Amino acid sequence: MSRLTNIIIVETASVIIEGLSGILQRSGLHLHIFRAGNLCDLEKIIVSHKKSIVIINPSLVQPNSKLFHALKSDFPDVQWIAVMYAVYDPQHVAVFDSAIGIYDTPEMIIDLIKKSMNTRSNHETTADEEVLSEREIEVLKLLATGHASKEIADKLHISINTVITHRKNISQKTGIKSVSGLTIYAVVKKLITLNNPS
Amino acid sequence: MYPKFYAMFSNTNLYLTADLKISDVVFDNPRILLLLEHFGIYFPLQEKTISEICRENKLNPEVFLAFANLYYGTVHAYPVAFSHKDTQSIISFLKNGHHYYLLEKFPDIRQNLLQLYEANHEREISMVEKFFNEYFNEVTEHLKYEDEVVFPYIASLYQQILMNKSFEEPVSYSVEEYKEHHNDIEEKLSDLNNLLVKYLPRKDDQKIRRRLILCLSELEYDLTIHANIEDLILIPLVERMELELKTRR
To answer: Residue A184 is nearest to which of B2, B73, B128, comparing CB atoms?
Structure first.
């Protein structure tokens, strides 16, 4: 429900952590800032915050690059920003989506975060508009009248994966995830009528 | 998760330290009152500092500060590794939270829902009531599971460490199942909010609906922190205790 953006700072130097946190907190952006000292700590936070922006010191990546690449592929919605205060091999920097330099002004840093937030939300809601497509409405109707995903797939002659994708999109557009919540939504929108009052 | 509340009350980015006066913290962010209650700290707070209050209540100030900073939206994933000595105060905090949900907050919400139905006597609203009751039953079950299975298990780990015993495998406990519950709880609450704010048709229910939504947001705020404490502080602590006991063998 929250539209806050999660920022995870992965860094060991307190001055850098505090400096970045300070700049971000004063930015007026709606952020929730987490801190992690290494990739293992980062993993713990990331599993419950899959759509985060990670600001990370590249030197913390190199000793454990296997885990880093695993995290990168497991959590495709994460944006990775390097915070650079040493010179790194360009090949090592290329794995990040963007980079903050130690001499960047607060405005430059905030701009970069804003850009990352936009990239994120764009592919988060590609089919935005919040209006359900005809197919989604069909799926929703069946869902709200007690059909399981498998039954819906059979009825509409589509694969179960397609049903799951429709369900995801329905939840993203309406903000409602549970079947019982979606049922109420369908009644409100007069997509279904319940004959048997319970 | 929701520093938006904090931002509402506070212009400073206060990072709490033990030398702060507890009353000043309350003025800055009144939601801290719930934290105090969960720790068993009550009015009047006098001129006491955090460290004085902690000493009086036999609390590790590190635990207090870590929890309090969560109410301010600051999560420290690494610096404070709590020791098994803190298990009792952490568990008692969480248990008090459960009492608050079950005996105070949920009855409040239910009361508000009843009034909403009185004002807006529609089929959809009665469905929302039913939705809430189902949600309430699920949460109650989860809290009961924590009270009856998870917390006793952790308490037994603590005893085993104190008495220098070796590790006994738990009978009916699984961290995975535990985490799954949390997702469900947050999801349904969010559904309820979406329905109330965006979709349910309005009648003469503006005021009562507003009260209900504010009430839900208070619950959500505290529940989120509650789940954070369990996921980020309690579970790692339990894992460390298990490891310590296992390596003893």
So the answer is: B128
Q: Total domain count for chain B?
A: 2
Looking at the fold, whether B67 and B113 belong to one and the same domain comes out as: no
Q: Decide: B106 and B192 in contact? Cβ < 8 Å.
A: no
Q: Say yes or no: B67 and B88 in one domain.
A: no
* Residues in chain B within 8 Å Cβ distance of A4: 1-4
Instruction: Report the pLDDT value the prediction gives residue A184, as an integer from 0 to 100.
Output: 95
Contact B45, B27 (CB under 8 A): no
Residue B1 in domain: no
| Same-domain pairing of B66 and B90 | no
Looking at the fold, whether B182 and B156 belong to one and the same domain comes out as: yes
B112 and B222 together in one domain: yes
A73-128: per-residue pLDDT in tens?
888 889 999 999 888 888 888 899 999 998 999 999 999 998 888 876 554 444 45
Task: Output b/e per residue, B153-167; b: 16+ Cβ within 10 A.
Answer: bbeebbebbeeeeeb
Look over chain A and give the mean of its residue pLDDT values, rounded to a whole number: 87
Flag whether residue B76 sits within 8 Å of chain A, measured between CB atoms. yes
Asked if B65 and B95 sit in the same domain, the reply is no
CA-closest candidate to residue B129, choices B183, B200, B182: B200
Among the three residues B71, B106, B132, which one is the final residue of a domain in this structure? Answer: B71
Co-location of B27 and B106 in the same domain: no
Give the residue from A11, A172, A178 with the most B CB atoms within 10 Å of its CB, the best one to mutate. A178
Which residues span the domain enclosing B181? 84-246
Q: Which of B131, B133, B194, B213 is the best substitution to test chain A (most A C-beta atoms within 10 A)?
A: B194
Q: If we measure between CA atoms, which residue out of A38, A44, A41, A122 comes closest to residue A79?
A: A122
- Residue B223's CB is within 10 A of a number of other CB atoms, namely 19
Residue A181: its chain B contacts at CB < 8 A?
131, 188, 191-192, 194-195
The answer, yes or no, to whether residue B81 has pLDDT greater than 80, is no
Residue with tokens 């609906």, as numbered in its chain: B209
User: What was the ipTM of the complex prediction?
Assistant: 0.82
DSSP state of B170: -
Q: Measured between alpha carbons, how far is A159 from A167 in angstroms, rounded to an integer?
A: 13
* Burial category of B189 from C-beta neighbours within 10 Å (exposed 0-12, middle 13-18, buried 19 and up): buried
- Does A5 lie at the interface with B, CB-CB under 8 angstroms? no
Does B76 reside within a domain?
A: no
**Residue B148 shares a structural domain with residue B102:** yes
